[in-house]
Amino acid sequence: MKIATYNVNGINGRLPVLLRWLKQDHPDVVCLQELKCSDDRFPEHELQEAGYAAVWHGQKSWNGVAILARGGPPVLTRRGLPGDPDDNHSRYIEAAVNGVLIGCLYLPNGNPAPGPKFEYKLRWFAHLLSYAEELLSYDVPIALVGDFNVMPTELDVYAPERWGDDALFRPEVRRAYAELVNQGWTDAIRHLHPRERIYTFWKYWRNSFERDAGLRLDHLLLSPTLAPRLKSAEVRRSPRGWEHTSDHAPVMIELLPA
């Protein structure tokens, strides 16, 4: 079973790139972020033609998350992160696929920091921590997947000395991520590649991708019941080099059969 996460940075504008990558790598489950489209503009038909059923939580111009699955439709279990009924951002969706509960998330960026956007990021992270702990109590195979907008360690950013005050790297955010992992989640990429400098995002400017001046923002966290099945984890870099592509690359893991 192959599970991937991909911040598409606008699903309709990048649809040719997404479809090309799906045909290339054939993931079984895909978590998408930054759809940047309303629910009625989601390209359901085109994805069905490519062999994928989907559930999604859209938002016009901003945010938006979706879960795609091959071989059968994902069974929607939640739309929206619990804890703040007034939060109208489309940042979390959850579905069961082939015996695994998949939580797809797009954590707030938080810049500029300090400020209201950063405070919102910390509140959202607090709600995620609470809900993630609840999920673990179910003792079932779970993957929390998506764009966390966090570089957990200095190994996850090309020039850590330049990022100390950024909302993606501030100590409060890194502590929150560490607290999340310490609940019992396994960071798939870091578990299999503990000392490698690995990135999932490169800015469009100053030849960042060509210079490999990137950040690791996209993570796949596995529950204790799922982590033993982890076979491989890698960043699929090639789509980042395609024309009119996202500034993120897909990240994909492979799981052994249950």
UniProtKB/TrEMBL annotation:
InterPro entries: AP_endonuc_1, AP_endonuclease_F1_BS, Endo/exonu/phosph_ase_sf, Endo/exonuclease/phosphatase, ExoIII-like. Signal peptide: none annotated. Residues 4-248 form the Endonuclease/exonuclease/phosphatase domain. The keyword Signal does not apply. It comes from the Bacteria. Keywords: Hydrolase, Magnesium, Metal-binding. Pfam families: Exo_endo_phos. The keyword Cytoplasm does not apply. Its cofactor is Mg(2+). CDD domains: ExoIII-like_AP-endo (cd09086). Belongs to the DNA repair enzymes AP/ExoA family. This is Exodeoxyribonuclease-3. It comes from Bosea robiniae.
